[in-house]
Amino acid sequence: MAAAAESNYELTRERNNLIMALKVGIVSLGCAKNLVDSEIMLGRLSEEGCEIVADASQADYVVVNTCGFIGPAKEESIDAILEMAELKAGGRCRGLIVTGCLVQRYAEELFQELPEVDGFLGTNELDKITAVIGQIEAGHRVKVVGDSFYDYDQPVPRVLTTGSHLAYLKIAEGCSHSCAFCVIPQIRGRFRSRSPEAIVREARNLREAGVQELVLIAQDTTAYGRDLKHTSLKDLLKELLPVGFPWIRLLYTYPTSLADEALELLGREQSLVKYVDLPLQHVAKPVVRAMGRPGDYKATLGLISKIRTQVPQAFIRSSFIVGFPGETEEDFQELLRFLDEARLNHVGIFQYSPEEGSRAAAMEPQVPDEVKQERYEKAMAVQQRISRELNAELVGEEIDVIIDGLSEQSELVLLGRHYGQAPEVDGVVYLGMPENPPQVGDIVRVRILEAHEYDLVGEVVEQ
Ligand code: SF4
Description:
Layout: E1 4-5, E2 23-28, H1 32-47, E3 51-52, E4 61-66, H2 71-90, E5 95-100, H3 101-113, E6 119-121, H4 129-137, E7 140-144, E8 166-170, E9 172-173, H5 184-188, E10 192-193, H6 196-208, E11 213-217, H7 233-240, E12 247-250, H8 260-268, E13 275-277, H9 285-291, H10 297-310, E14 315-322, H11 329-342, E15 346-351, H12 369-392, E16 398-406, E17 413-418, E18 429-432, E19 443-451, E20 456-462
Parallel strand pairs: 1-7, 2-3, 2-4, 4-5, 5-6, 6-7, 8-11, 11-12, 13-14, 14-15, 18-20
Antiparallel strand pairs: 9-10, 16-17, 16-19, 17-18, 19-20
């Protein structure tokens, strides 16, 4: 439908009457931070009268919100774009729009190489999604990618895609760390905290809409407030507590910034979920230093022990990179020993992916792919054993579980998560349907009956 290849329009809201009553579907890839951006765009579209559809094959317009973090994520994004482009050839779809990190990173190349895409929108242009569809309806092909940061403090009518009981809340955007492997600061810009007022206002709206579990996210949540005056993560948490969420979960903390005062609050406040998400990336000192990150084996183990002392019931998640340039067999063995000693509940292992524009991409020696794969498999095997053992310790215990819905396998099985399981990234708890089925978002007492590597099976003992 694109009549002309044009770019960087001066987009106005007047054109939006063209898009009323269109059906729009979205494919959101990557992390929860990207998902919030998808929900903001859906909110804008819905505000303008578009109907949001879950099934992309029923949509007039399909938006693919991409991830451009590492190689496999980029491949997944391109595959999703090509798959959605097929809907234009054989289905109802008359416009395909690509947004997100991949566009922010490779706008020009994508514009040239993907003629089947009608519109490209960078990460700072979320509120231009409606105008872009208006332009495409008028016969143009559009690319809008700017450097002025999107204002996350403005009131936004988000459409939640996580169910009405669960919502992510972005407390900051961007990152001012300079980890050698990461291009996020180039894509998303320097770290900017949202104002406490805007965050609390959005949290109140979410609570009024029925959200039970609020998940606070940012590239580094522990840096919150550093760029503002007189506020910190602890101050923000104190303002969020009275809003009344049964569960508030904090993700993406940074090792050296997880301050005692925040941990103390986590240990003390009942509604702050006893869950610590601490991406560590590595523990062998030469690798950690080459990554441009703080800590080493001993310091990191000390931090884990401090968390366990201050928040004894804490479930801890982390992620590590294997095959970083220069990682020796000895460094890798140190990581394996750490996994065994730290016994973290949930661990993600990633193979290092050289990203153009990152310092690490030019480092020598790069680790051969087959060695990365081998190390990945070994680290996964160690952690799977630990996770299985830790899960087995839960059998017979009673624990609070939030109900997420029905299992896909059977209408007689409920799906929930105990407080030590974050949505999407950790396992789940399967529950037999009790006589009085709980509602989605209810927090019920569950006895754990069976444990597997990732998932648990339990029964509701109290509602
Ligand atoms: S903390 Fe490091 S890895 Fe995380 S987003 Fe910032 S630069 Fe990237």
